[in-house]
């Protein structure tokens, strides 16, 4: 899993502009979608926040202040957006299909970080996957793999 995540975040590194987190930076779109998934159930747990921070820190080589800036930029972008299209359109331009599928896996990893999966989180990821052009089979496969990686059994829900 760590190798997969490292590869994903390194692929984003190569497409970054020289200015830190410029508008349209795909990493802001990733951070925004991650925060939207974290907030989908109305509760942002410490474990979800920790999971997001560790993914960005370990696999994107961000230090404390840059990491904080990215998460804040993602949160602000998410709060300003009326839907997910803004972010998914950017990511479709920057990521190939396999990278988009990996992103869905990362979103599921964040969902399972708190050990609880609910229908609001399912819906958000379904919508994001649909906008990214990810099939239902790939979305469900990524969910199952994330559940298997989760420290706690967080099953629950059906395969929609």
UniProtKB/TrEMBL annotation:
Mind telling me which CDD domains this protein's record contains?
terB_like_2
Question: Which Pfam families does the UniProt entry name for this protein?
Answer: TerB
Tell me which residues make up the Co-chaperone DjlA N-terminal domain. 28-143
Would you say which domain of life the source belongs to? Bacteria
Q: What is this protein called?
A: Co-chaperone DjlA N-terminal domain-containing protein
